[in-house]
Design a protein that fits this description.
Layout: E1 8-12, E2 16-18, H1 33-43, H2 46-56, E3 64-68, E4 75-79, H3 81-91, H4 98-103, H5 109-113, E5 117-122, H6 126-139, H7 146-158, H8 166-177, H9 181-199, H10 215-221, H11 225-230, H12 253-264, H13 273-284, H14 287-296, H15 299-306, H16 310-334, H17 340-370
Parallel strand pairs: 2-4, 3-5
Antiparallel strand pairs: 1-5, 3-4
Helix pairs in contact: 2-3, 6-7, 7-9, 9-10, 13-15, 14-15
């Protein structure tokens, strides 16, 4: 997908500014253009672009996308900041320090001339370029982090468009970004919870170079009704109205801190991503499990204290049915390879399993009669 380039023009490099709202920066707000350059140098691997420009010049097949800046004759590049930063640092690397200057390749005359001006499509505002940005960075090859995607989506959702409901905007975003409305919804709400945690001093604002949080832990937990209840959300499924500032009510902020510590703190209980997060959800859903986790900070102990729930039991029933079928289907394949004593042991184990299953069946009947 490419934007129409009938408005493409060559603009002098010195008239182009980096976008200080670019999601590539995450939540970190650069104070000025020099700081933005340093951030991109440290996080965006400009050296690869330096080498390319030094070898063949600036490749012009994909123009930058910009909007008019606050000053006459200046433009803010909202798509192509990495390429713009590479060009600017090649011309004036003094802000990056001596080590970076030593790594700069030398430019030949034609390569230097290729970055005097850059190909740019100037659009009216950010909204005009949103479809392009969404395709490339949310589902395309130059992907952002999940936090940056969420920030981008929230900005689109909160854009003022009269006579369009939030529900309609969510569906439109789903069509544009290629994710289901429910997935987008919990990532957007998760982003708002993340912002609130930073504002409340629960979470640290991200710093370039630091390992980012596993944002999926947070927004996946929000898909769990007991977790939402724990955080003070209203009953029922998430809705577009939950994508708001400070979605966790004041009286639930202490519980947000608890959840944050369990997910991301120095003594996080999430050691195995695939299993520990579902176990934490179960613990939060039960009074006994929650009390045990608060007392011991031990997820294994709290999980046992939470006890067996209906979901666990149904999973065991499904596994028993599956394994019983496999045992039945495989008898004739293995019986000739078993010794007489092994066959007798197998008979005893199957008979024992039968008794357990029959006992479970009787208990089900008794339970149904009680109700």
């Amino acid at each position: 997908m490419h934007m129409q380039n009938d408005r493409q023009q060559e603009i002098p490099l010195e008239q182009l500014d980096l976008d200080l709202q670019n999601p590539r920066f995450g939540l970190l707000a650069a104070e000025d253009q020099n700081e933005a350059l340093r951030i991109l140098y440290e996080s965006a691997d400009l050296k690869e672009l330096w080498r390319s420009i030094a070898q063949v010049g600036f490749e012009r097949f994909e123009p930058l996308i910009a909007i008019p800046g606050a000053s006459e004759g200046r433009f803010i590049v909202i798509e192509g900041n990495r390429r713009l930063a590479a060009c600017k640092t090649l011309i004036n690397p003094s802000e990056l320090g001596r080590s970076a200057m030593r790594a700069l390749p030398e430019l030949g005359p034609s390569q230097r001339a290729s970055i005097d001006t850059l190909p740019v499509v100037v659009v009216r505002d950010r909204a005009e370029a949103d479809a392009f940005i969404g395709f490339k960075h949310v589902n395309g090859p130059a992907t952002w982090s999940s936090i940056a995607k969420a920030r981008f989506g929230v900005r689109l959702l909160e854009a003022e468009i009269s006579a369009v409901s939030r529900k309609e905007k969510m569906q439109d975003l789903s069509d544009k970004l290629g994710d289901g409305p429910s997935v987008l919804l919990r990532t957007f709400v998760g982003y708002k919870v993340y912002q609130q945690a930073i504002a409340e001093g629960i979470a640290d604002a991200p710093v370039e170079g630091d390992k980012p949080i596993e944002f999926s832990h947070l927004y996946t937990m929000l898909n769990h009704p007991p977790t939402r209840s724990f955080l003070g959300f209203s009953p029922g499924p998430l809705s577009a109205d939950d994508v708001r500032d400070n979605p966790v009510p004041p009286d639930a902020v202490p519980r947000l801190k608890e959840l944050w510590d369990w997910l991301f703190g120095e003594k996080s209980v999430i050691a195995r991503q695939g299993t520990d997060r579902p176990r934490l959800q179960k613990v939060i859903a039960t009074e006994n499990g929650l009390a045990a986790l608060r007392e011991t900070k031990d997820l294994d102990y709290a999980y046992k204290a939470a006890g067996l729930d209906a979901g666990d039991w149904k999973q065991r029933l499904s596994a028993a049915l599956h394994n019983s079928r496999l045992l039945d289907e495989g008898v004739f394949e293995v019986v000739e390879h078993l010794e007489k004593g092994e066959i007798e042991d197998a008979r005893k184990q199957i008979e024992k399993a039968r008794r357990y299953l029959f006992s479970a069946l009787q208990k089900l009947d008794v339970g149904a009669d009680i109700e």
